[in-house]
Amino acid sequence: MDDRLSRYSRQILFEPFGEKAQRRLMSARALLVGCGALGTVIADTLVRAGIGALRICDRDYIERDNLQRQVLFDEDDLTRGEPKAVAAARRLRRINPQVEVDPHVVDFNPDNAAALAQSCEILLDGTDNFETRFLINDLAVSTSRPWVYGAVIGASGLVMTVLPGQTPCLRCVFESAPPPEMNPTCDTAGVLGSAVRIVAALQALEGMKLLSGLRAECVRGLMTVDAWTGRVTTLNVAAARAARDCPCCGMRRFDYLDGRMSSSHVTLCGRDAVQLQPPAGLRVDLDLIAGKIRRATAEPPQVNAFMLQTRIGDLTLTLFRDGRAIIKGTKEPEVARSLYARFVGG
To answer: Does residue 186 have an active-site annotation?
Structure first.
C-alpha cells in the first residue's frame, strides 16, 4: 500500500468500502455550506477520511458559545477574531495536508451559489435555516447534483440524502419553511453537542458514499435521530415525490435560486442577531470605516484582514469586506439597518 493510502488503512479494511472507493474519494470535491455545529463535524470527518478537496463557505465569526459543539475551534481562535471558514481551514490543513481546503467568507445566496458550487460533485448542508437549505435544494435539483440535508435541535435531528431524479427533494417533504413560532432554535430549545455529532456523522457518511462512487448504498429516506432516547428511524418519504406536485423537482420552479424568495436580511438562529446583505459586488474599506467609528464612539473597533468588529451601545457590529454585516443584540431588521446606515452607509 502506498504512503498516501496508508493513512486510510483502517477504513480501506472495511469491506463494503475498500481501496477502490478510497481512491475515488481522494479525487472527489465537495461544497460544504455552513461551518458551524454540523459543518465543523462534517468537515473534520471528511478531511480525516481523505476527501480530495473541500470548499467551505460560511458567513459567520466565532463566539464563545460555539465552542460547546463546533469541534474545529478553540479559545485561541476566539483571540484571533477570524471568520469561521478561515479558522476551520487552518485547522483542517493541519489535520490532513493531503486535502485541498478552500475557504470562502461569504453568505451563500442566489448571486454566488452556482459559482461556489462549480467543480463540486455534491453539496453538504451545515446551515441553520430553511431559506439557505431551499437554495441548496434548488441548485442541486437544477444541476442534477446530489446533496445531504441535516438539522439538529435539542437532542433530535434529521438527515436526508437527495438524489435528484431518484428520491424526493427537500421541498417534496417540506414545501415551505415553518413559521418562526413553530420553528424552535438553539436559543429557545438548546442543543447537545453529542446530538450534533451523531447527525453530522450520518451526513458525512452519506457524503462519503456519494463521493466514493457508492451511491447505491445511500439511505433513501428521512432519518430521524433522538440522541436522548437512542432511537434512530428511517421514514419512507418516497410518496412525497410520487405526487409530482413539488414546486421544485416536480414543476421545475427554482424560486430560491432565482432570488424570488430571498431576503436582504436574515435573523440568525439562536443568536439575537440580524445579518444584512448588501447588493452583490459591493466592497467596503474597513480601515476607512474604522476611522469613522473611532471618531464617533469611545470603544475602538477591532480590524483584521477579514472583518471589523465594534460595540456601539448595546449592539455589536461585525462588518465584512463584501459589505455584509451581522448586528448582534437585536432581532429587529430596522434597528440593524439604522446602525448600518449610521456607520457604514445607506
So the answer is: yes
Q: Which residues, at least 6 apart from 64, have a Cβ–Cβ distance to it below 8 Å? A: 78
The rounded Cα 172 to chain-centroid distance in angstroms is 21
**What is the per-residue pLDDT across 54-87, written as a single tens digit (0 to 9) for each?**
999 998 889 898 999 999 999 999 999 889 999 9
Same domain, yes or no: 226 and 300: no
Q: What is the pTM (predicted TM-score) of this model?
A: 0.84
Partners of 223 in the β-ladder: 159, 234
In this structure, the number of other CB atoms found within 10 A of the CB of residue 236 comes to 9
Amino acid at 73: F
- CATH number of domain containing 111: 3.40.50.720
Q: Which long-range contacts (CB under 8 A, 24 or more apart) does 182-188 make?
A: 183/130, 184/153, 184/154, 185/128, 185/153, 185/269, 185/270, 186/128, 186/153, 186/269, 186/270, 187/269, 187/270, 187/271, 187/272, 188/270
Residue 307 within a domain:
yes
Whether residue 247 is contained in a domain is answered as no
Same domain, 200 and 169: yes
pLDDT tens readout for residues 252-300: 999 999 987 765 667 666 678 999 887 666 788 888 888 888 887 777 8
User: Are residues 41 and 187 both part of a single domain?
Assistant: yes
- Separation of alpha carbons 7 and 13, rounded Å: 12
Q: Which residue in 186, 246, 248, 269 is the catalytic one?
A: 186
Number of domains in the chain: 2
- Answer yes or no: do 208 and 158 share one domain: yes
Sign of CA dihedral 281, 287, 292, 293: positive
In a domain, 181, yes or no: yes
